[in-house]
TrEMBL record:
UniProt keyword annotations, A-Z: 4Fe-4S, Iron, Iron-sulfur, Metal-binding
Residue stretches in coiled coil: none
Domain 4Fe-4S ferredoxin-type per the UniProt entry, residue ranges: 2-31, 36-61
Matching PANTHER family: ADENYLYLSULFATE REDUCTASE, BETA SUBUNIT, FERREDOXIN III
Protein name as annotated: Ferredoxin
InterPro entries: 4Fe4S_Fe-S-bd, 4Fe4S_Fe_S_CS, Fe-S_Ferredoxin
Annotated GO MF terms: 4 iron, 4 sulfur cluster binding; metal ion binding
Amino acid sequence: MAHPVINADECVACGVCVDTCPCDVLELEDVATVKDEDSCVACGSCQEACPAGAITEIAED
Ligand code: SF4
Ligand code: SF4
């Protein structure tokens, strides 16, 4: 399983990662959060798209 690691202190809540993810893994609350970790395919699109550098890694566990 994989999931993006989001640094809430850096997230500016723009929603770009939510819109970019092809698997509907993320949602925007006060900051971007992982709502469906099981669907993440570790493509890295959210990390590449984040303008704030708030997604620090795609963790595989
Ligand atoms: S790594 Fe890919 S599938 Fe996983 S949350 Fe980011 S955009 Fe979605
Ligand atoms: S793209 Fe980055 S700054 Fe924008 S909501 Fe997602 S994690 Fe936050």
